[in-house]
Amino acid sequence: MVALDANFLIRFILGSDEDEASSMDVNVSRALYNIETRRFLIPTPALSEVMVQMDHEQMASFIRYLHGSKHFIVQPFDQRASIEAALAVRKARDEGNKKAGSQEPWQKVKVDYQIAAIAKANKASRIYTSDSDIDKVAEKFGLDVVSLDDIEPLPSERQISLELPADGGSPGLH
Predict the structure, then answer these.
(1) How far apart are CA 45 and CA 129, in angstroms?
(2) Beta pairing partners, 3
(3) How far is Cα 77 from Cα 71, in angstroms, rounded to an integer?
(4) pLDDT > 70? residue 43
(5) How far apart are CA 17 and CA 1, in angstroms?
């Protein structure tokens, strides 16, 4: 299972705004390509960040969609996740930087800790995101982070290599 961060979900649900490269939307589609064989964890703090940008009707529709989907699993910041978060924050604090090297305000870093803790508590192996800071926190949980920029092309988008004869002749036309 993989976890989806808020910025990933925002692009999946609402798309990118006009100022952003549309390649972000393509990368979100690429990541969800294997949806039939994967289950995606949505931490409730990420869900909340997404729903802030929706009107009431969109929110209700999205929640109905999630409840009807076998692919998306919404998980709260529960007791297991709070223990995971406490252990990670204490470790980072003992190492001299409770913000795990992030330059963001503590409130944002705490939300990143919650998202990563929910992922860890629910046995996710990685987090999909375009947030450059969550990787610092996710490292404390042993989670991989996949940036939207690093997502591989779909099989249909891959360029096929054409091997030409060494003599420069036409392939197969003799």
Answers:
(1) 14
(2) 41, 127
(3) 20
(4) yes
(5) 28
Confirm if 4 and 41 have CB atoms less than 8 A apart. Answer: yes
Residue 147: beta bridge partners? 129
Tokens at 10, concatenated:
């925002």
pLDDT tens string 10-36? 876 666 555 554 444 444 555 555 444
Separation CA 101–CA 79 (nearest Å): 26
> What domains can be seen in the chain, in order of their start residue?
2-154 (3.40.50.1010)
Distance of alpha carbon 72 from alpha carbon 63, whole angstroms? 11
Q: How far apart are CA 121 and CA 111, in angstroms?
A: 15
d(CA 8, CA 119): 15
